Amino acid sequence: MSKSVKNSIIYSFVAIASQLISLSIYPMITRIxxxxxFGMWAMSLAFGSFTSGLSVLGFTxxxxxxxxxxxxxxxxxTLLLTYIFYxxxxxxxxxxxxxxxxxxxxxxxxxxxxxIFPILLGHILSCSxxxxxxxxxxxxxxxxxxxxAYLNIGxxxxxxxxxxxxxxxxxxxxxxxxxxxxxxxxFVVLCCLTYFIFKSKAPLFDFQLCKKSFKxxxxxxxxxxxxxxxxxxxxxxxxLISTLGGVGIYTMGxxxxxxxFFFMTxxxxxxxxxxxxxxxxxxxxxxxxxxxxxxTPYFYLSSILALGVTAFSKEILIIVTSEQFYSAWPIIIxxxxxxxxxxxxxxxxxxxANKMGLSSILSFIQLGATIGANILFIHIxxxxxxxxxxxxxxxxxxxxxxxxxxxxxxxxxxxxxILTTLSYIYLSSLIVFHLNSLEYKLIHLTIKISLxxxxxxxxxxxxxFKNVRxxxxxxxxxx
Length: 479
Hints:
Number of strands: 0
Helix content: over 70%
Radius of gyration: 22 Å
């Protein structure tokens, strides 16, 4: 077996196993934690995503870009650690701000001044997660699949065990759940940072590099700002217009549908470095067509998972959660479809063309569309309305962004395959939505399996399975 195939198996395993491991304790967790508990923690993490996003600015994207910038002579460890230390310093500043203005933030999120501690933990956990992203990006860029897998799976195992221990076994409930996650993720960051500090023989911090990168990242700040609000504001609106329990139901549906986005992101660890290299190497029509052909199997693999999660949304909730979360199945269907189309936002053509300002403008447009749609639909449908609003607003913003991205660097996608696949998934989603609304029967399961089989037939018709080994090698990592 070739190295490319081995590494393909590793990354596929990471994408699926990490999610399955974290979901494995849900049958126990959801019988202890209520939708209100999940809603409260989701609101804290939403706020943490905002503060950590402002802490890191656009440094994660700039790190990837500067890594592939062949004109740069900066040592790879100096590049990584400079961004890490910058993020740590700005995260500490936000920690102090939260400690000073915690009551105000608590009133803003929960209409109560006493929930400062969950907000602080949400910030620390979100910052730890973003710091881990730097280390994972390093292994992704270095194409070290095994190291990436060890860090990813190892963290998930520790967090899952800690959550089970403190929440279920020791019986600390909600506080045990959020404290264990925060402590373990922070510990992983500390271990990674210590490892790279001792491994590096180059300077640990380059002020000039930080200054230059800050100027590059600053135009991305509105993008980061609007991106966080765009992805988290729906939860705040549900809590404001509806209830914290509604936030919990929505978060549970989002958690399972996010499986699609997470898997697609794992695939992105393969195709994004390749796309960058191909764009920087050549800007011809032939090269653009090659990129489109290279990306098609990744989209198709993502669509298979999206349809699988959509088709069995109700069954997943019945197996994995308690009855109080069963009503989240429509949210799973809608958001699974939404996360699938986000595939076309992962090529970073605007970043390649160094058009950070345009990227920020487009992010504001998408933010406005998403907030407007969310306000409209949450008033009508509650938590389900947040999913509908997210899809409608996101689709509008993505369409506009895709137009300008293609102008920056036009990738010649295989639209026949892509549009056929999307049309089939939308039709299948409508069928599943109708079936889930009826009294459950065995024939429904048969129909859902048949729908998944139909998507495989589409792949066969377009010769996507003509050479299985070739397709696997496309989804590969070089060691």
